[in-house]
Each structure stands twice: as C-alpha cells, then as structure tokens.
Amino acid sequence: MAKFAVYAREILVGHSMLEFGDAPMGVAFGAFVPSEAYSQIQGECRVNHEDQSALCLSIKTETGMTVPCAGVGILDYSEEIEPPNMEVNVLGVPYPLYSELFPEHVASYEQQFK
C-alpha cells in the first residue's frame, strides 16, 4: 500500500496510507500522521470539519503527482479521544485514476458481489 503526502498549499503537513475507501464514490481515507508543520493548521482542523477549502489541502503520491479530487479534509479529534484520533479524507478521485491508485479498495468492493 502506498504512502500519500498531505499538503496545505505548499507545506507538507502529514502523511496517510489512505487504507480505506469507497470505490464507487471515488473516496479514500485513512489515519493521518501529522508532520511538525501540521501545528500551523491544527487549530482549524480541530474546530472546522465542514469547510477546510481555505487551507488548500491536497494529496500527492510518492512520485509527487498531485491527486485530482473534489476535496480533502482532515478530521482532528486529538483533544477529545485517544489515538488514533486523526483522519484524512479524499473525496471524488476520478476513474480510472482511482483504480490505479487504490486497486485494493476496488477489489474489496468487487468482492462483495462474488
């Protein structure tokens, strides 16, 4: 499984394996592992779970390709619950790219119908 970098504008704020997904919706999500720079946006991620577009969040592959998507959000519950308590969501990754980046999510979805 690949490791994805999470950026706020041009600042690396963390990583995720994006280990879960909803293949038909083009959604991938997983545990968020913050970098030191995450502290610059953490306050906003803790209180604003509805619209983080001002943070200009994006996801990049290990090769540095920015993943096109409808949106990225970080859910930070670090003040409320014990770890793991942070998650990153990537919404609306287009096909066929989704199946290239997340073949295990597609396979898991298809397995339901066998």
The value of Rg in angstroms is 14 Å
Biggest sheet strand line-up: 5-2-1-6
End-to-end separation in angstroms reads 23 Å
Count of individual domains: 1
Separate helix tally = 3
Structural class: alpha+beta
Arithmetic mean pLDDT: 96
- Report the β-strand fraction as a percent range: 25-35%
Largest sheet: 4 strands, antiparallel
Assign a percent range to the helix content. Answer: 10-25%
Q: Which regions are unreliable across 5 or more consecutive residues at pLDDT < 50?
A: none
Shape: globular
Order of helices and strands: EEEEEHEEEHH
What's the β-strand tally? 8
How would you describe this structure to a colleague?
This protein is of the alpha+beta class and 114 residues long. The chain has one domain. The protein is 18% helix and 32% strand. It contains three helices and eight strands; from the N terminus they run βββββαβββαα. It has a four-stranded antiparallel β-sheet, with no helix packed on it. A four-stranded antiparallel β-sheet has the order 3-4-8-7. β1 and β2 (11-16) form a beta hairpin. The longest helix has 9 residues, at 103-111. It is globular and about 45 Å long. The model has no long low-confidence stretch (mean pLDDT 96).
